[in-house]
Amino acid sequence: MEVRVILVEPKNEENIGAVARVTKNFGFSALYLVNPPNIGKKAFSVASHASDVLSACKIVNSVEEAIADSAIVAGTTSKPGISVNRHLRMPFFSPQELKKKVEDKRGILSLLFGREDVGLLNEELMRCDIVVCIPTNLGYPVMNLSHAVAVVLYELRDVRADSGELPLACLEDKERLFAHISMFLDEIEYKDYKKEKTALMLRRILGRAELTAREVQTLRGILTKAERKMGEDEP
């Protein structure tokens, strides 16, 4: 897969330079920055010989722009869920497990890394197909941003853009499926207080399933047939 490193609203330009450096260390080059601070001499000094990665980084205004065209969106967190009922951060994958999920796939893997102080917001984690957490000492689980990026990219270092055989569905196709599911839940009068949690649970399940474009269309076809049948059965 093609690996895309995305920093969401990083606060410190030195951290951006350090991330550019480790991105190049492990053979990657795609770096996206969502609403970063001004990138000046400090960032380029820390980036060192990875100034080409830093110079070529894409600056965007939103997570939606950064993850466009992705096949898999993986959000990172230092606070994994502890309950099977908390689907926002559960289940989570280690970096090693993430590699096993993507190493024979084709498409773009977007890795979301959050702010140095608060990480990814809940609404940003809800956009992710899977959640990644680096196993650390429970007494101090929060890593420096560039260190966390380095650990994940180290595990993915052998994954290459042209190595996958199975093309996955693009983000846009999956989002249409999730919108269809949400509409279907309304049509069957699914309880409002359970709808958001159920929709997130289904997003996590389908995200782990690594759907192809044809599988997405098949699932939407099943929903459409169910909707037609319900319409026929209405008095």
Helix and strand sequence: EHEHHEHEEHEEHEHEHHH
Total strands: the figure is: 9
Query: Which CATH top level class of the largest domain fits?
Result: Alpha Beta
The overall pLDDT, averaged over residues, is 88
The structural domain count equals 2
Notes on the protein architecture:
With 235 residues, this protein is an alpha/beta fold. It folds into two domains: 166 residues, Alpha/beta knot; 63 residues, Helicase, Ruva Protein, domain 3, CATH 1.10.8. Helices cover 46% and strands 15% of the residues. The protein is built from ten helices and nine strands. Helix 1 runs parallel beside helix 2 and helix 8 runs parallel beside helix 10.
Could you provide a short overview of the structure?
The chain is an alpha/beta fold and 235 residues long.
Could you outline the blueprint of secondary structure elements for this entry?
Layout lengths: L1 E7 L4 H13 L4 E5 L6 H7 L3 H5 L2 E3 L2 H4 L5 E5 L15 E2 L1 H8 L2 E2 L1 E6 L8 H4 L4 E3 L12 H11 L10 E2 L3 H17 L4 H17 L4 H21 L2
Parallel strand pairs: 1-2, 1-7, 2-3, 4-7, 4-8, 5-8, 6-9
Supply database-style keywords.
two-stranded parallel sheet, 10 helices, elongated, 235 residues, Alpha/beta knot, seven-stranded parallel β-sheet, alpha/beta, 2 domains, Helicase, Ruva Protein, domain 3, 46% helix, 15% strand
